[in-house]
Amino acid sequence: MSDDVKALFRQKLASSQSKSLEALKAAKRAKLQKQARADAQQDAALQRKLAEKQRRDAAARAVQAQAEASRPSVRYVAPPEGRDHSQPAQQPATGRISDAKRARLAKVEKYKRPLTTAASKDSASKQEPAASSRQARDAAPNKGSTAEKGSVPAGFFDDSVQDAKVRKAPLPHETKAAEWAEFEKEIEKEAETTEAIIEADTNQTTIQRTLFELEEQKGVASLRTVLSSHECVSFTTRLHHRYNL
């Protein structure tokens, strides 16, 4: 076998091997690009979900703030100084006997007294408890005029802190802190889920790349074997035809 034939054989073998390697590299690049696009789409979907959740939370907070702003506020007007408002003003009871009528009744009783002394004493003893009970009823405070502590509606006071203390409700800063802590927990949970998904995808991609490289190496080895056998057979055939062996 001459040197020219050997050089030609080596050149063809190198050309075929380079073409097969280029084809395998192109297929590998296409597969990696496809996997990268899939990973980018998955990351974009996760980002969209997170943005949608943040948007819904912001909308809920805005609606709550708007509802609180539109709620009618009841202003507390302090009583003027110099008056005791612990007891309500006594109003004339309906059905009370007027002074003129009481005077006429006294005159009638005066004329009847000599005739009915015992009856007048009994009536006087009955009238005294009735008068005392009437005075006690008139002097009793109006229970519905003052609100018990803790029974006022929300927004009764303009000061939110005072309103919360009177209603025995959580203070505004405590409520905001609890809501913010809950929001941070949800964000951390979403981040952990995203990291777990990305880690699983990365592991799967690494395994796929390793398998692809093994298949590539196996294919190159088999291709080399096939090309070597084919080139040897074709070269031997050409020698036989050329030199009529």
TrEMBL record:
Q: In its keyword annotation, does this UniProt entry include Ribonucleoprotein?
A: no
Q: Name one process (GO BP) from the record.
A: mitotic DNA damage checkpoint signaling
Question: Could you tell me one molecular function GO term of this UniProt entry?
Answer: nucleic acid binding
Where does this protein have compositionally biased stretches of type Basic and acidic residues? 49-59, 98-112
Ranges where the record places region Disordered: 30-156
Question: Can you list the GO cellular component terms from the UniProt entry?
Answer: nucleus; spliceosomal complex
Q: Where is the composition biased (Low complexity)?
A: 35-48, 60-69
Where does the protein end up?
Nucleus speckle
Short name of one Pfam family: ZNF380_CC
Q: Which residues form the ZNF380 coiled-coil domain?
A: 152-217
Q: Which UniProt keywords apply?
A: Developmental protein, Metal-binding, Nucleus, Zinc, Zinc-finger
What is the designated name of this protein? ZNF380 coiled-coil domain-containing protein
In which organism is this protein found?
A: Monosiga brevicollis
Native organism taxonomy: Eukaryota, Choanoflagellata, Craspedida, Salpingoecidae, Monosiga
